[in-house]
């Protein structure tokens, strides 16, 4: 189970009470024993008699032999065993109880047999000298000791403090002991929190029911002993880590229902942020252009499939490695932190079957949140829009098949086809419609999700296996939207011969998803899109209706041609006729063989191999509006009846394959010298290969999905617009995809080593180094062999003899420094060129220069200094971890501003520097812990401050500071940019100076003059804050009362700003269009500019300081109530540990902005203006888990 | 135990030994050009043919300096000013308000993102240098390589020659050509400094040299009009000599180019055979020709060398009209270019800024129906030959060429032109040239500049005057008014050029 021999060596040794060596040896095995013991093992068919002989055997050894022969396991605690002495025995086929009697004869120990468990307890001490002073009248009191769930606890030591008399409870938990009024009864039992009860007169009265004493588990301490940290390369006890990491505790994972792994991570580890885009960030952003996501390692190997491939109910632990010491072993990919996930390992014992399932629902989205214009306002705005630039819109109108009905009416009026009255009458009707409301009811729905997990595990000493199957089905909140996933995990461990162990694991993922292709268009009322908020999309009984989106003259032209498809457009029906389906399969296989060569020296070879394949099919049905439109448009004028597009569906299909493997050979050495010096070293090498091979086929036209047939087609002529002049509607021409291909073959070879030395259980020093070589980077020998490395140290101050603070159990001080790397695959020492799609302009495939050669490129480096402390206070009641870090990221790939005469305005060089500093605090406390009631508080807080120290791009155009042109070129992100001297993802704004009397926004220049948008320069902009929250806080409260558990998590993100959406002059779909400037004088009471079909107001106005809002928010992310029914309920069905869960998510939100925006539901896409996305709605889940 | 140790040792050695070969694999999915064909692909980059001397929305302030366009008050006050038009430089050019372009942002003619000539030149330089640096070439490869290099040289020469006279004064044969214009960059290494500015003289000399260097290797036919062929090389030389005013050379090279066309029908559309695809919609309808279906495509038979030109110039909704002078130059009854392209339609109209309505105006819709080029069209070759003949007093030949073209442009039955005096013939040729070439882009702009050397001739203008809202603005052709200054962005990188920064406000 544990890789190193020192897995659980971490019991705090109390000052001035250091134990003799032998005892600490026994203690070392205790955690193992305890874990084993805690799992009630029923090994059937094993004899209950014992054969044993030997001299001076340690008790522990005897018990392990007994366990082997009888299947009975020992349940004990360290204190008890520490009191034991060795025994000499020679028994043959003696019943167990006889053997135990013999063994414990001369020990201060007693035992009880319960089921297959031997429970060790202290012998009632021999009564000391008769009590002197007041001779209280002794009365016999009887009672029963149980756990919090009411199950009897046998072997509990019951002691009268005053008299030192004691007994142990019987198998049914009952006891009786003589006491006097005022005496204190002390109940103590291994693994449980001791309890003291003062005897009152009332308790001793005749006829009183027997006393019931409940003991609650001392869970914290037990966890502490067992916890190890897996770095993927090795498993180290928590006590011996010098680096900074966070481990998610299994018990916390089990206490809730988890919709997915990301939500499981959120709030559980300080310094780990889940961005609103669903990305994981560890300790801020430490790169500009390269990948910023942490490396995901599953069961020891980097997993290319990502976090979704993990079965969350089959996770044993998740560790986030945050600093250099923790992560530098991953070398060139560790700059962003590493998430190490280990899947469950079977517990020793019989076959175990578990089930956990849940079903949930998310409320139908509230579309009013999107702030879209009402039908009436939209009609008015569309009229004004038309009038603002009649000639252009009329020209535009000629070129598009569909146009808003309002514009159609206006054009027809201008052409004399309709009278003013006719137009006004129809406009009045359109004003009354409510498309948003109809869509909310008829297009959206509650989204439903269900998840099932079935796990089976079994283990013997030579073989253990764990398997889990998880099925997740989600039905999206928009009709026609669904996805499901099946995850199969299988893990086997063998120990074929002594000193050899073999592990194998398999993870298989199947996913399916379905999305309507035009889903996003349904709520997009931008003026060049088909949908408008004034169409009736359903009739009063909810049947989908056609909407008059197609220009009537085009319909007539097609009708006159004859034999063409209908141009009716029915948005709701049409949505289902164009669907993208995605199917993917991913298998990850891995294994390792480890051999113990010498005492402390072991060698290991292993690897993992991932193979994925996927298929994405976007099918537009022959009857979909898109296909009908293109078919009609592409009808030949010269040869009536000839169609340049064959009749049938259009299919776009991508088939993709991926493969990746990691092979590793590693030597581990660990040795303990005289219990004072402890050395542990690993060294190894790794090869890594990552391939993709994706083929997007040319679009199949004239496709028949029933038969799989398609038509021949001349892609070249069609896409070269050769047929267009003969098209019935040339403007309706759309090119069809000719497909694409993408390949990748990235390779790495790495050498690594790390080691730690511990002196006298107080000082730990660790160091690591790694060299990575890739097949793209680094021709310049200067940079070729630069290793990533780290050093770290821990000082266990709490272990010092001079340290006497009774309420501090542990006080460790850690420090580390090191260098982590990060890579980008987009540049290299070669000139790189890349093909595009066929160009009718050059009659060929255009190639572009994607990167200029540069042999000075190197991997990005992040130097992390970390100082931290781990403190445990008040008997484990309060655990606290505090870390300070300083991450200096250097040589970041960044645009270097060059003379544009070179043909480009910048080139990417290792020319960036950024710093992240921060403080992280993690705190856990059992605030209240009594028999029935427990209250646990878990807090994670982090503060991060970032600064761009070097970024050589000199912004020339103010738009580059607001639009996010390209995140791969300038590293800008959703309207937030990089600029020297400012935090990462800084937001810049213009200073608004009101509207002038034409409704045109004015701004203040840096010298406070009023200027127009065109005149704005970068120097006129002001810094408005950063899009990165400085504070990430989460607080989980868990309450236990009898069989009920309640927990809720509050999360908060503070210190960031965001830009809100606004009417900007031409986005008439925005509600605020109604508040716009209309006539001179309006500028006195509105800030929203004039409406113009053609204006650059929209380039500047939305980016004024007015639109900046505080991003701060707090959410009740989840609330879970669970109930554990009494095991007796199941009778002898074998079912146990059942749990019923009720969970709500996103139930309550508190935001700091004045405009009612949920900062998690607003976005600014690449080159797009700010918009609101569908709001996060409350989610409700009900779940059930049970073991067999 | 020892065995195990050896085994492990062996395994590690094996892993490390194979590492070299493992890493030597070229990264897949990334194309590192290594063959002639790889470099040749760069010449198919559409940016290298579409993004020259045009602004962001693909118009050109150069045409707005000239005499082909006219702007109304509404277009200027609302379309450009009140709307904060992104290409305000066109309006500023129209009213000769300097600086025309924002001096503190990237110049889109020069280099801005992938726009401008220098990004294109970096492609051509990479092709030339890349192919030349391949050591081992098979004879076939060497041949293809020479073609690609020659095509890149012509493409680069085209950029530099035009740029030199857009960023500097027109070439004055025998006169002072010492004005420093542009850096003649031929290197691909971005770590090497940008060379000093070349003079008009130096650019002219170098362009001539490189054209002659390329000429023998140019293919007789190229795959697409985006690439130069032999005729392009000759056309380029003819064009070059329009500016050196060696008109016999113009006639010679234009003749060699034109001869490659075979017969006129192969390279000219007969407008008499055009039909509107949808006569009910004359504005938007495309043209159908019996000759082929490529009238509106780059591989149109009339295009010899394709370089994108301004699209919407002279279209009312796009904020300009053809000038009255240009309209007056047309024989409205017989010139089919007029009847197909110059269409009366609703002009600019808006409720903004107090409201403007230009009413019905003639707009130019040629861009909608025909593919035009700022490179070389076959009609231009014919017209260059005609100009060469006319200027060297071979008037009959000149008139014959004009009549050849007019046969394809004017209604059948239109009487052919007859020769008059030399100046009359030159004027006829140049008027035909003005009607035939794109009204936007830089062709007319450069013609206006070179005609300043014909001082006193009817086609020569020293000043251009524009009127808007009753106010007139004028600019001198042979002066800074017709020169695009180098952006401050570039000047800041090159203080050694000694050009002061533009400090006037934009």
UniProtKB/TrEMBL annotation, chain A:
GO CC annotations on file: cell outer membrane
Main location: membrane
InterPro entries, alphabetized: Beta-barrel_TonB_sf, CarboxyPept-like_regulatory, Plug_dom, Plug_dom_sf, Secretin/TonB_short_N, TonB-dep_OMP_SusC/RagA, TonB-dep_OMP_SusC/RagA_CS, TonB-dep_rcpt-like
Locations listed in the record: Cell outer membrane
Keyword Glycoprotein: no
Domain of life: Bacteria
Membrane topology, record value: Multi-pass membrane protein
The keyword Transport appears for this protein: yes
Residue span(s) of domain Secretin/TonB short N-terminal: 78-122
Domain TonB-dependent receptor plug: 240-338
Pfam family name, one: CarbopepD_reg_2
Keywords: Cell outer membrane, Membrane, Transmembrane, Transmembrane beta strand, Transport
Similarity-based family: Belongs to the TonB-dependent receptor family.
Protein name, as recorded: TonB-linked outer membrane protein, SusC/RagA family
From TrEMBL, chain B:
Organism domain of life: Bacteria
UniProt xrefs under Pfam families: SusD-like_3, SusD_RagB
Domain RagB/SusD, chain residue ranges per copy: 380-477
A cellular component term, taken from the record's GO annotations: cell outer membrane
Location in or out of the cell: Cell outer membrane
Domain SusD-like N-terminal: 104-238
Alphabetical keyword list: Cell outer membrane, Membrane, Signal
Main location: membrane
Coiled-coil regions listed in the entry: none
Record has Ribosomal protein as a keyword: no
Entries under SUPFAM superfamilies matching the protein: TPR-like
InterPro entries: SusD-like_N, SusD_RagB_dom, TPR-like_helical_dom_sf
Family to which this protein belongs: Belongs to the SusD family.
Protein's recorded name: SusD family protein
Organism of derivation: Chitinophaga terrae
Organismal lineage: Bacteria, Pseudomonadati, Bacteroidota, Chitinophagia, Chitinophagales
């Amino acid at each position: 189970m544990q890789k190193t021999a020192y897995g659980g060596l971490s019991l705090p040794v109390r000052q001035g009470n250091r134990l003799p060596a032998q005892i600490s040896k026994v203690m070392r095995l205790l955690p193992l024993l305890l874990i084993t013991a805690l799992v009630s093992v029923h090994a059937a068919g094993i004899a209950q008699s014992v054969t044993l002989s030997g001299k001076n055997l340690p008790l522990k050894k005897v018990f392990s032999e007994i366990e082997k022969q009888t299947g009975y396991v020992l349940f004990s605690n360290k204190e008890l065993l520490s009191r034991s002495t060795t025994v000499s025995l020679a028994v043959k086929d003696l019943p167990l109880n006889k053997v135990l009697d013999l063994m414990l004869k001369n020990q201060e120990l007693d035992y009880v047999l319960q089921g297959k468990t031997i429970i060790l307890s202290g012998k009632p001490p021999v009564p000391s000298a008769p009590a002197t002073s007041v001779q209280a009248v002794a009365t016999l009191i009887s009672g029963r000791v149980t756990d919090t769930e009411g199950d009897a606890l046998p072997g509990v030591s019951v002691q009268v403090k005053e008299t030192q008399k004691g007994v142990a409870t019987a198998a049914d938990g009952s006891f009786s002991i003589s006491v006097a009024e005022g005496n204190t009864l002390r109940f103590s039992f291994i693994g449980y929190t001791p309890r003291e009860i003062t005897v009152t007169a009332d308790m001793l009265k005749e006829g009183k029911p027997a006393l019931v004493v409940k003991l609650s588990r001392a869970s914290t301490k037990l966890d502490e002993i067992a916890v190890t940290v897996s770095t993927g390369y090795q498993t180290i006890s928590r006590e011996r880590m010098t680096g900074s990491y966070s481990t998610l505790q299994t018990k916390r994972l089990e206490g809730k229902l988890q919709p997915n792994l990301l939500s499981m991570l959120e709030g559980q580890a300080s310094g780990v942020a889940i961005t609103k885009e669903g990305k994981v960030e560890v300790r801020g952003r430490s790169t500009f252009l390269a990948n910023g996501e942490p490396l995901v390692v599953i069961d020891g190997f980097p997993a290319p499939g990502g976090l979704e491939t993990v079965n969350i109910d089959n996770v044993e632990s998740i560790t986030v490695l945050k600093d250099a010491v923790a992560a530098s072993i991953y070398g060139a990919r560790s700059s962003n932190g590493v998430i190490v996930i280990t899947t469950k390992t079977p517990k020793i014992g019989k076959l175990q079957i578990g089930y956990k399932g849940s079903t949930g629902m998310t409320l139908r989205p509230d579309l009013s949140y999107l702030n879209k214009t009402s039908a009436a306002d939209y009609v008015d705005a569309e009229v004004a829009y038309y009038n603002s630039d009649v000639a252009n819109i009329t020209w535009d109108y000629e070129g598009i098949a569909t146009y808003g009905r309002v514009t159609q009416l206006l054009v027809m009026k201008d052409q004399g086809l309709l009278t003013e009255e006719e137009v006004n009458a129809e406009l009045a009707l359109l004003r009354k419609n409510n498309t948003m409301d109809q869509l909310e009811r008829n297009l959206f729905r509650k989204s439903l999700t269900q998840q099932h997990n079935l796990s089976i595990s079994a283990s013997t000493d030579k073989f253990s296996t764990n398997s889990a199957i998880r099925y997740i089905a989600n039905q999206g909140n928009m009709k026609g939207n669904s996805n499901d996933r099946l995850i199969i995990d299988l893990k086997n461990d063998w120990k074929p011969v002594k000193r050899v162990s073999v592990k194998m694991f398999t993870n298989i993922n199947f996913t399916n998803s379905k999305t309507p292709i035009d889903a996003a268009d349904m709520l997009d009322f931008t003026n060049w899109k088909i949908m408008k908020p004034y169409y009736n999309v359903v009739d009063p009984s909810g049947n989908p209706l056609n909407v008059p989106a197609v220009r009537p003259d085009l319909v007539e032209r097609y009708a006159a041609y004859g034999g063409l498809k209908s141009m009716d457009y029915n948005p709701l029906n049409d949505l289902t006729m164009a669907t993208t389906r995605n199917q993917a399969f991913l298998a990850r296989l891995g294994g390792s063989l480890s051999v113990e060569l010498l005492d402390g020296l072991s060698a290991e070879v292993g690897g993992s191999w991932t193979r994925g394949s996927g298929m994405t099919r976007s099918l537009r049905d022959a009857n979909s509006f898109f296909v009908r439109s293109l078919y009609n448009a592409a009808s030949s004028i010269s040869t009536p009846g000839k169609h340049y597009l064959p009749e049938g569906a259009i299919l776009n299909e991508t088939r993709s394959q991926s493969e990746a493997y990691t092979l590793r050979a590693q030597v581990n050495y660990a040795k303990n010298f005289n219990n004072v010096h402890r050395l542990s070293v690993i060294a190894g090498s790794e090869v890594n290969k990552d391939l993709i091979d994706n083929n997007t086929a040319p679009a199949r036209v004239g496709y028949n999905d029933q038969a799989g047939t398609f038509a021949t087609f001349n892609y070249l002529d069609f896409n070269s617009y050769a047929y267009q002049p003969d098209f019935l509607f040339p403007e309706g021409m759309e090119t069809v995809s000719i497909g694409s291909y993408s390949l990748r073959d990235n390779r790495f070879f790495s050498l690594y080593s790390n080691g730690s030395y511990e002196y006298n259980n107080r000082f730990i020093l660790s160091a690591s180094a790694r060299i990575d070589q890739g097949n793209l980077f680094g021709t310049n020998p200067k940079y070729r062999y630069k290793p990533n490395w780290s050093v770290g140290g821990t000082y266990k101050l709490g272990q010092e003899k001079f340290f006497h603070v009774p309420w501090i159990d542990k006080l460790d001080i850690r420090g580390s420094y090191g260098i982590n790397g990060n890579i980008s695959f987009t540049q290299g020492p070669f000139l790189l060129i890349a093909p595009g799609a066929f160009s009718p302009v050059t009659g060929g495939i255009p190639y572009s220069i994607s990167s200029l050669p540069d042999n000075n490129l190197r991997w990005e480096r992040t130097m992390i200094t970390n100082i931290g402390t781990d403190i445990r206070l008040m008997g484990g009641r309060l655990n606290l971890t505090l870390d300070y870090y300083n991450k200096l990221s250097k040589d970041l790939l960044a645009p270097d501003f060059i003379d544009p005469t070179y043909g480009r305005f910048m080139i990417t060089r290792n020319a960036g520097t950024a710093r992240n500093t921060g403080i992280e605090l993690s705190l856990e406390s059992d605030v209240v812990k009594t028999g029935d009631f427990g209250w646990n508080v878990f807090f994670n807080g982090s503060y991060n401050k970032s600064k761009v120290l070097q970024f050589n791009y000199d912004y020339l155009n103010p738009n580059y500071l607001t639009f996010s042109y390209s995140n791969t070129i300038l590293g800008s992100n959703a309207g937030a940019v990089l600029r020297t001297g400012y935090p990462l993802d800084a937001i810049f704004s213009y200073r608004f100076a009101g509207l002038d009397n034409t409704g045109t926004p004015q701004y203040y220049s840096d010298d406070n003059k009023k200027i127009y948008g065109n005149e704005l320069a970068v120097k006129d902009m002001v810094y408005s804050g950063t899009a990165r929250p400085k504070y990430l806080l989460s607080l989980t409260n868990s309450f236990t009362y009898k069989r009920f558990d309640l927990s809720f998590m509050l999360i908060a993100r503070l210190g960031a700003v965001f830009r809100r959406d606004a009417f900007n002059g031409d986005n008439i779909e925005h509600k605020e269009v109604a508040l716009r400037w209309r006539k001179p004088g309006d500028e006195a009471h509105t800030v929203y500019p004039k409406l113009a079909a053609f204006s650059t107001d929209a380039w500047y106005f939305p980016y004024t300081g007015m639109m900046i809002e505080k991003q701060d928010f707090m959410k009740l992310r989840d609330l879970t109530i669970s109930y554990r029914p009494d095991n007796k309920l199941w009778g002898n069905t074998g079912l146990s540990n059942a749990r019923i869960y009720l969970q709500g998510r996103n139930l309550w939100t508190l935001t700091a902005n004045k405009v009612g925006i949920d900062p998690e539901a607003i976005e600014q896409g690449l080159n797009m203006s700010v918009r609101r996305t569908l709001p996060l709605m409350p989610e409700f889940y009900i779940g059930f888990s049970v073991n067999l | 135990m020892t065995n195990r140790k050896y085994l492990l040792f062996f395994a590690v050695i094996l892993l490390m030994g194979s590492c070299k070969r493992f890493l030597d694999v070229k990264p897949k999915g990334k194309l590192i050009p290594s063959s002639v064909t790889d470099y040749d692909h760069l010449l198919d980059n559409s940016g290298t043919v579409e993004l020259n001397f045009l602004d962001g929305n693909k118009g050109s302030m150069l045409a707005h300096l000239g005499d082909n366009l006219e702007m109304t008050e509404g277009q200027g006050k609302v379309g450009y000013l009140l709307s904060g038009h992104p290409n305000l430089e066109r309006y500023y050019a129209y009213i000769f308000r300097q600086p025309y372009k924002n001096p503190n942002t990237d110049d889109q003619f020069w280099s801005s993102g992938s726009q401008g000539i220098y990004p294109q030149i970096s492609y051509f330089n990479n092709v030339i240098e890349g192919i030349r640096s391949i050591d081992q070439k098979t004879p076939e490869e060497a041949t293809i390589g020479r073609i690609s290099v020659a095509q890149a040289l012509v493409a680069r020469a085209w950029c530099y020659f035009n740029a030199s006279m857009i960023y500097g004064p027109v070439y004055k044969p025998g006169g002072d050509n010492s004005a420093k214009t542009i850096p003649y960059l031929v290197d691909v290494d971005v770590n090497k400094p940008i060379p000093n500015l070349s003079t008009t003289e130096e650019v002219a000399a170098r362009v001539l040299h490189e054209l002659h260097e390329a000429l023998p290797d140019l293919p007789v036919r190229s795959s697409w009009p985006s690439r130069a062929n032999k005729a392009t090389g000759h056309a380029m030389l003819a064009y070059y000599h329009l500016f050196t005013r060696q008109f016999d050379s113009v006639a010679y090279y234009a003749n060699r180019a034109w001869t490659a066309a075979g017969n006129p029908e192969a390279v000219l559309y007969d407008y008499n055979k055009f039909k509107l695809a949808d006569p009910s919609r004359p504005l938007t309808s495309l043209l159908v020709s019996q000759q082929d279906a490529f009238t509106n495509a780059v591989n149109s038979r009339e295009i010899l060398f394709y370089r994108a030109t301004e699209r919407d110039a002279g279209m009312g909704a796009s904020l300009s009209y053809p000038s009255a002078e240009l309209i007056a130059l047309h024989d409205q009854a017989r010139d089919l270019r007029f009847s197909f392209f110059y269409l009366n339609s609703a002009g600019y109209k808006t409720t903004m800024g107090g409201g403007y309505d230009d009413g019905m105006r003639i707009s130019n819709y040629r861009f909608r129906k025909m593919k035009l080029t700022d490179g070389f069209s076959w009609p231009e070759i014919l017209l260059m030959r005609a100009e060469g003949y006319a200027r060297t007093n071979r008037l009959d030949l000149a008139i014959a060429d004009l009549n050849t073209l007019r046969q394809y442009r004017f209604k059948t039955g239109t009487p052919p032109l007859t020769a008059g005096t030399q100046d009359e013939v030159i004027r006829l040729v140049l008027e035909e040239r003005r009607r035939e070439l794109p009204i936007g882009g830089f062709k007319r702009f450069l013609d206006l500049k070179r005609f300043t050397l014909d001082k006193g001739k009817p086609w020569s203008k020293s000043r251009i005057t524009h009127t808007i809202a009753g106010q007139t603005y004028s600019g001198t052709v042979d002066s800074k008014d017709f020169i695009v200054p180098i952006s401050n962005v570039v000047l800041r990188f090159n203080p050694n050029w000694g050009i002061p920064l533009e400090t006037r406000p934009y």
